[in-house]
Amino acid sequence: MHAIPFYPIGTPGQPWGATERNLWRARQVRQRSHADDVLGAIDALRGRWHVEPYGEVAYADAHHAPERFPLLALRSHPWQPGLPSVLVTGGVHGYETSGVHGVLRFADAHAARFAGRANLLVVPCVSPWAYERVQRWNFDAIDPNRSFREGSPAQESAALMRLVAQHQGPYGAFAAHIDLHETTDTDESEYRPAVAARDGKLFEPGSIPDGFYLVDDAGNPQPAFQQAIIEAVRRVTHIAPADAKNEIIGSPLVAPGVIRYAVQQLGLCTSISGARYTTTTEVYPDSPRATPEQCIAAQVAAVCAAVEFVCGEKSRRAG
Counting Cβ atoms within 10 Å, is residue 245 exposed (0-12), middle (13-18) or buried (19+)? Predict the structure, then answer.
C-alpha cells in the first residue's frame, strides 16, 4: 500500500485559517489573460450580440495588489417574448478551459442558427481570476460551484445569481440551463487533496472517468434531455464508461454517461435558473483519446443539442 501524501499547506485534521489561505494564494501564478482570451473575444461579437455588463469581481489583500475583473454576458437581440429562453454558462471553474472556449465558440459560430427560435443568455467566464490562474477556486479559496446560494461568499456566484434574477423578471423564466465543465486529472492530484486539507479532513483517493458525462438534477431529473445531449456529443468524442461499481466519480450511473446530483443542496450553478431542463457537462481533457479541439467541439455539441431540444419541445407542444 502506498502512503497518501498530505497536501503541503496546513496541519492534518485542522481547517485552514487566514495564514493557510495566504500560503495557498502565494502558490497561484497568473498563466493567461482573461482580457485577451475572453474580453477580446466578447468585444469581437458586438453587433451580433448585446454585450451586457453584470458587475465585477475585485480582490486584494496585504500581499497582493488589487485586481478587478469586469463580468460580461452576451444576450441575443432582440429578445423575443414567446420564445424559449436558454442560459449557457462556462468558466464557473476557471481552470476548465473547454467550458470557457466552448461557450465563446458557440456564441461566435453556432448561435445564429437559433435566431427566431430561442432567446439566449450566454456567460463565457464566470470566474476570471481563476481562469487566469488555471485554478478551480477563487481568490478566497472558495469553490464557486458550491456557492450558488443566498448570501454566497463567492463574488462570482453572487454576481451571476443577480444577473439571472434580473432576467427572470422582465424576460420571463428560463426553459433550460447548461453549464460547461471539465473533470481533469488535477481534480485527483491537486483539487481533492486541497479540499481535504482546507477543511481539515482526510483525503480519500478516487478515480477520474475517461470521457464525457453529464450531471442531471436529482430533484428534477430530465432523462430525455440528457440523452439528447449524450447522443449529440457521442458523434464528437467518447462517453465515459462506469467504473467497477457502476459509478462515475462516486455517483451511480442512471443512463449511459449520466449521473445525478442534488444541485440545489450542493449550491451548484444549474440550481439558479429555475429552468425545467438543466445539465452540467463534464469533458475529460486529459484523455489520450481526445484533443483540446475535440473537447471544445464536445461542449459546443452539447449546447447545440440542449437548445435544439428546447426548441423541439416548443414545436411538439404546438403540434
Answer: exposed
> C-alpha cell of 60?
486584494
Question: How far is CA 120 from each of CA 77, 98, 275, rounded to the nearest angstrom?
Answer: 9, 19, 13
32-318 CATH choice from 3.40.50.1820, 3.40.50.720, 3.40.630.10, 3.40.462.20 = 3.40.630.10
> Are the C-beta atoms of 119 and 76 separated by less than 8 Å?
yes
Give backbone dihedrals phi and psi of 129, rounded to 5 degrees, phi first: -60, -45
Of the candidates 174, 190, 247, the one whose C-alpha atom is nearest the C-alpha of residue 213 is 247
What burial class does residue 31 get, using C-beta atoms within 10 Å of its C-beta: 0-12 exposed, 13-18 middle, 19+ buried?
Answer: exposed
Give the tens place of pLDDT for each residue, 112-148.
Answer: 999 999 999 999 999 999 999 999 999 999 999 999 9
Q: What are the residue boundaries of the structural domains of the chain, listed by start?
A: 32-318
Q: Is 63's pLDDT higher than 80?
A: no
Residue 304 has pLDDT above 50, yes or no: yes
pTM > 0.90: yes or no: yes
